[in-house]
Design a protein that fits this description.
Shape: elongated
Strand content: under 5%
Helix content: 40-55%
Structural class: mainly alpha
Number of helices: 16
Amino acid sequence: MSDDSEAREVSDDPLESGEDGVPSFDPRIERMIESGESLPSELETEIVESSEDLTDELVAVLTDEELAHGQAPGEGWAPAHAAHLLAKRDDREAIEPMVELLQTCEPGEALHPELIDALQLLGDAAFEPVLEALQASDDRDARSSMLEVATHLGVEDEALYREAIAFFRDDPEIGAGYLANYGDDRALDVLCERLDATDVDTSGGMLANQDIIEIGEAIQALGGDPDDHLIEKIRLVKRRRRRSGGGLGQLLEKFGGDDDSPEPAETSRDIGRNEPCWCGSGDKYKHCHWREDRRGDKKRKK
């Protein structure tokens, strides 16, 4: 047997360890691990279009806690890249480990939005595993993550609708978006009832009344026509927070115009979770600075 044949035979096991006990990967996966925050487009194309079975290696990277650390090769971005590549390769075998990992992944981690995007990209095949995890979990963050995936898949399912309604009742600020994503206008009555029952917080915190903004956006997304006093409540929020346009301004235009309150020199960070983040990253606010801003606002209230 030639040296080349022996080398091929060794590489047939993608996770065989080298002399130092560290798993040896396909050279392309090694390059991905080392690539840092930005995965080169040519490397992505090379991996996605490869006919070779790279599932085990990509899942191994995805689930490697050490590779998620900022001090790891690639500064902790390798698992996020693995999730993205598995989805682009339409690798259905990766759904189960992705769902399992998402249940424990912290929302602030780089991997979290990539897992959500990957499962959404995998489509209907991800729905049942995600729904099962949602129904089995009593952890708020895990349930929120599962709803973020499931309500974007376009699958009509009564059990999912009930889960989204239940989450909204517990956390209207976040849950309103899931009802909007799901797209069932039966939720309009629940949304309007909650908006009616929610008092405007006059404390003046940076994210005060975010629940009113999110509920209003959900009502708009579902084609609702709220009563005048609900529209006025949204207008009052704008006066209190002195916004200068953006998503809330569009909402007010949709629901009956603006007011004449003076505009501030700087735009505050009170934007919808599905809008682009204020920092200019291009990511949605909920995937970028939303939690950090929310934590800061809660500290100020204390």
